[in-house]
Write a structure and sequence with these properties.
Layout lengths: L2 H6 L6 E5 L4 E5 L38 E4 L9 E7 L11 E6 L13 H18 L7 E8 L11 E7 L4 H9 L7 H7 L5 E5 L2 E4 L10 E5 L12 H19 L4 E6 L13 E6 L6 H6 L2 E3 L3 H10 L12
Helix pairs in contact: 2-5, 5-7
Bound molecules: zinc ion (2 copies).
One zinc ion binds next to helix 4.
Length: 327
């Protein structure tokens, strides 16, 4: 290529990264970065055409509850703090699989950034309870729990909720990670944490918030236990996790102006021991789009390096202690 041609293409250089733990290959393309002012909240509101079925008093609008934490009332009556119901429009039906909705709060429109910590903790408790319960169903092999927050993230309801899908197979992503992680020897995620210096957003109690080595989209960030643990449903310190989760949600909302977000729980298979797996919660702000290249290749194009993402999230951390005030 002639020098003139090189000059024409002299944008910020792209970079390809590979994450041995997930097998993901990501193309970082800084030249495609949008200016910060483009990272606006998607203001399109979800149009609710009838009373919210997840609000207290409307319990009859949902299917019958399978679990609840309550102050008062009988099943399918008000008085609950967290309520779990089968999805009215299930992607999987028993006995093949289960698709449930965890209604995380009685308060319509509440967000994890400002919810009482106890509320987040109880939502996580419901996640654990349902994972433990559904792991006893014959034929159930794996499960995912995900939260779609905001219209661009796929949410159709404003009321705070997450979804659980118990599957008759091991999800391909989890399967890949189980194959890639050596059953004996060092855990790639534990080792990843040791080498994450520039990608750490914060450490909070037993948890670390880290931009992953090969983030798929701008500002993807993971919350991992610092001590090795394969199963989310077995952890005891839910208060600590709720605190770290709220802090991370605040960083994301503050840095990116309340974007739509997908949160996804990755945990070991339900039907087999996988002590070498390291569970995590993935937070994916929905700033870009998945288009032809991604569908065609299974690879991703990301405009923001994980180190840059971590730095911006760190600077936005409302709970960080300024130097000199620590201790
Ligand atoms: Zn509601
Ligand atoms: Zn580990």
């Amino acid at each position: 290529m002639s020098p003139a041609a090189v000059a024409v293409y002299n944008w910020d250089l792209s970079e390809v990264r590979f994450d041995p733990a997930t097998g993901r290959k990501v193309i970082y393309a800084p030249a495609r970065a949008r200016r910060p002012s483009d990272y606006r909240t998607d203001l399109r509101e979800i149009v609710e055409t009838r009373a919210c079925p997840f609000c207290p008093g409307n319990e009859r609008e949902t299917t019958k509850e399978v679990f609840a934490l309550r102050d008062s009332g009988a099943p399918d009556e008000p008085g609950w703090r967290v309520r779990v119901v089968p999805n009215r429009y299930p992607a999987l039906t028993p006995p093949q699989g289960f698709h449930e909705v965890i209604i995380e709060s009685p308060v319509h429109g509440e967000r994890w950034s400002t919810a009482p910590l106890r509320r987040i903790e109880e939502a996580l408790e419901a996640w654990q309870e349902r994972l433990r319960r559904l792991s006893r169903e014959p034929g159930i092999r794996g499960a995912v729990i995900f939260k779609n927050h905001g219209w661009r993230a796929g949410a159709t309801r404003v009321h705070p909720h997450s979804q659980l899908m118990a599957l008759p197979f091991i999800p391909p992503q989890l399967d890949y990670e189980l194959q890639a992680a050596p059953a004996a020897g060092p855990c790639p995620w534990c080792r990843g944490l040791e080498n994450a210096a520039g990608r750490v957003v914060f450490e909070n109690g037993g948890y670390a918030a880290v931009a992953p080595e090969a983030s798929r989209q701008a500002y993807e960030v993971w919350l991992l236990p610092k001590e090795h643990a394969s199963r989310f449903e077995e952890i005891r310190d839910l208060a600590g996790l709720a605190g770290a989760l709220q802090r991370l949600w605040r960083c994301v909302e503050s840095a990116l102006h309340q974007p739509a977000v997908n949160a996804m729980l990755m945990t070991a298979p339900l039907d087999a021991a996988a002590p070498h797996y390291h569970w995590r919660l993935e937070i994916l702000p929905r700033l870009g789009t998945i288009a032809g290249f991604e569908w065609a290749t299974g690879c991703y194009i990301n405009s923001v390096l994980p180190e840059q993402a971590a730095e911006r999230l760190r600077r936005a951390d409302p709970d960080s202690v300024p130097p000199g005030e620590a201790g």
